[in-house]
Amino acid sequence: MNTIHKYVLSEGPVRTNIIEMPYYAEVLSVQMQEKNLCIWAMHHIKGNGDPEDEIVKRKFHVFGTGWDIPDERNKYFYIATVQDDGFVWHVFEEV
Question: Where are the domains of the chain?
Answer without folding.
Answer: 2-94
